[in-house]
Specification:
This protein is of the alpha+beta class. Strands 1, 2, 3, 4, 5, 6, 9, 10, 11 and 12 form a ten-stranded mixed beta sheet that branches. Strands 14-13-15-16 form a four-stranded mixed beta sheet. The protein has a two-stranded antiparallel sheet with strand order 7-8. A hairpin with a 2-residue loop joins strand 7 and strand 8. Helix 1 packs parallel to helix 6. It is elongated. The two termini are about 25 Å apart.
């Protein structure tokens, strides 16, 4: 779910191959709207930048909005080194109903008019506290995770009986915002790979009333926040007026590895894969142990290699 997805497909709405390049390298922060897939966002970005290699660092469902970190060019290869694991979500959980998809799309018809559950704010606060820490979470049946080589959502749509996997995920904080029956609003800080849909359903089960995720907005990824993101409309305008490159961010700023600065006379050799010796190093940013990954930069702090 949090691996970089690279989109190299072509559609009729995109520029022809003669106008596509891979010259740009960097990140674009996008405020994804509702009712568009993450794949659809990358295709839009590809069209705006005229760029072939475009990827995102974590999927958002069509019914979710908020921050997507999109990589261009060489940044797609660097994403696994970026410090983007921490996520923050603003979620609305509808108590008293269950859903096959764990969101608003699959609400059981029999529960469509169910009354608000008889639960108090104190019960809710005590319950959400139990989900903080490293917890076991069942992957939603309607998800893109593969089991026996097949996407779970395809098995679900085919009516197949599939045992969904259980994963350990990390939830750092669940902040209670408000409860106006039947809707509970919370803010969740968590590690990558956490399904907020599953969390919503599990909270409902713990309260004994059932629940599903009715709204979701991703507020932050790593150090990036949605307040700094661009809407697709704003990016399209930038593409039209020639200012699209101003939306690009330096991808190397998110790489939190120990940094080794090599001398200027050795820079070219690093680019060709030659390992620096102590006499080729002008500065080391922090301590590291044998076998640790480090970033090699030049004296202008430009990334040369990961070693």
């Amino acid at each position: 779910m949090d691996e970089t997805y690279i989109d190299n497909t072509v559609s009729n709405s995109e520029p022809d191959s003669s106008s596509i390049t891979d010259e740009r390298n960097g990140l674009v922060l996008v405020d994804k709207p509702l009712d568009i897939t993450s794949h659809g966002v990358t295709r839009q970005i590809r069209r705006f930048f005229g760029q072939r290699s475009v990827g995102h660092t974590g999927t958002l469902d069509p019914l979710a909005s908020g921050l997507m970190v999109v990589c261009l060019g060489g940044a797609t290869k660097l994403s696994r080194f970026m410090d983007l694991d921490q996520k923050v979500y603003q979620a609305t959980v509808r108590l008293g109903k269950r859903s096959t998809t764990l969101d608003a799309e699959g609400v059981y018809d029999a529960e469509s008019d169910s009354a608000a559950p008889d639960v108090s704010e104190s019960q809710i606060r005590a319950t959400i506290e139990t989900f903080i820490g490293n917890i076991q979470q069942k992957v939603p049946l309607f998800s893109a995770v593969k089991v026996s080589g097949k996407r779970l959502y395809k098995s679900a749509r085919a009516g197949e009986d599939v045992e969904t996997p259980v994963r350990t995920v990390r939830i750092d904080e669940i902040r209670f915002v408000e409860y106006e029956a039947p809707e509970l609003k919370i803010v969740v800080s968590c590690g990558g790979g956490t399904y907020i849909r599953s969390l919503a359903a599990d909270i409902g089960d713990s309260l004994g009333c059932g629940a599903y995720l009715s709204e979701l907005r991703r507020m932050a990824v790593g150090d990036f926040t949605v307040e700094k993101a661009h809407t697709l409309e704003a990016l399209e305008q930038r593409a039209s007026d020639g200012s699209i490159d101003e939306a690009l961010l330096d991808a190397t700023a998110s790489i939190k590895l120990p940094r080794i600065t090599v001398s200027s006379d050795f820079e070219a050799r690093v680019r060709h894969g030659v390992r620096p010796r102590p006499e080729n190093i002008s500065k080391i940013s922090s301590e590291f142990a044998a076998g640790d990954q480090v970033s090699l930069v030049n004296e202008r702090a430009e990334l040369l290699a990961i070693g």
